[in-house]
Amino acid sequence: MISNKKREQYIIVVSYITLFTNAALAISKIVIGSLGGSFAVVSDGIDSSTDVIISIIALITTYIAKKPPDKIHTFGHKRAETIGTKILSFIILFAGIQLCITAVGKIISGQSSQIPNIATVVVILISIFGKITLSVINFNVGKKIKSDLIIANAKNMRNDIITSLSVFIGLGCTIFFKLTILDPIIAILVSIWILKTGFEIFFETSSELMDGIKDNEIYKSIFDVIKQFKSVKNPHKVRVRKLGNFFAVDLDIEVDPNITVKKAHEIVTQIESEIKSKIENIYDIMIHTEPYDNIQHDELYGINEKNLD
Ligand SMILES: [Zn+2]
Ligand SMILES: [Zn+2]
Q: What is the ipTM of this complex?
């Protein structure tokens, strides 16, 4: 398991590499695209500049997320990463809508009569190569340190590669067949890609901010741990939340009503350390203890083994 300090260092290094490469690619595509007469290349450049903002957000949120808990933020600051990713989705959606509107405007007004020059083709090729390299680096590091932000970043870059490839093919057709109308049409397709990514990130972060957990493997692991304790019955109202790449666990259990508080505390402490050893990145566990066959009708939420599947 990778230490938190190492994790932060990885995020910072990979974010800086991504930031500077993307900034260089974005600026060259916007400048050469404008001068060379290809709005599709400009739109690809704007897509890359959203990636520059991704990197800036990754850097800022890492600094916030590593701050220790304080009197106001008793759970720590790890959700800063989720908030950063949420802001990112708004930026991506905004860029996508802007591009789409501009490209449609170009088609309607018939502004797209220029044949793009060869420099636009060269800059797109360089961009494709650069993005493939960045995507591979981000994906591997993201998997290694379990950062959804970095993995989201890498996935977004795969879309960028497809986008740049389509721009490249479109440019070829535009130049070869002298079909200038193709250029803004490709720009519209690029903007649809951008919007799709934006919506995906928007819904994922919404779920996390509402304490949603996508896969229920972690619940299965918790029930498996409880099963090892023969004196413990009916684990219920299990709730898991994500704090950055960490998990906070709440659950209810039932124990023999005649044992001492000391004994019950012993059992609970054992369960806690067992869960921590079985599941990586547990931030906190809160166990509520009840007597056997406790009837409580207000426990309407949380997971028990019956509603797990
Ligand atoms: Zn209960
Ligand atoms: Zn205790």
A: 0.80
